[in-house]
Amino acid sequence: MKPEIMLLGTFHMAVEPEMIHKHSDELSSITASLQEWNPTKIGVEKSFFLEEEINKRLKQFLQGEQAPAYDEVEQIAFPLAEALQQDRLYPVDEMVDMSTPSLDQVFSWAEEHQPELLKEILTIQQSVKQMEDKQTLAGYFRYINDEDYKKQLKRVYMKLTRVGDRQHQIGVHWLKQWHHRDLAMAANILRTAAPGDRILVLVGSDHLHLVERFLKESGDVTIQDVTPYLPEKKNV
């Protein structure tokens, strides 16, 4: 039986701790909903260099010795592992140098040489931001895992390919680094998967569409849509 993979697009909670504090009661309902899929393994967007440290902190959490930090792994994966009686998480991220060029350099080039293209990119990004529903965690998670969100991100990345010229493919070079990271994540997930596994993987929402695509194209796993396993948005 092919392994099943369910990808959960997340946001970096350390950047928005006030949101987690405000909606902390919703985290338990998100965990409970994900638990219904009954994953056999939980993958997380962390480097394998941190595997020992992550699982050490998980053990401390399971023993009641460690409160979860404002981090998506500790806020979601730790309680889920506890509910599933699992004592190990599987890091799937890759350390990639994203500085040659950096995204700032890509945008600086566009600002100087291709202002109209930059305007197009920023317009899409602003549209995505305006559509984000941060009134509830359930609403936010549903949005960043929605097909329309992925579609808009694809448009941004394809517009980034046009930044530069035939002699200076600056946007393409940045995206090569990004694809390297997402390809490596997909490869690490596939290495983790054994026949009959049901693996839930937490990944940053910006990586979601590429990692999902690479996994599908492998033909070695079945992708499970996460949406039915997210709680419904509550009215506020």
TrEMBL record:
Pfam families: DUF5694. This is TraB/GumN family protein.
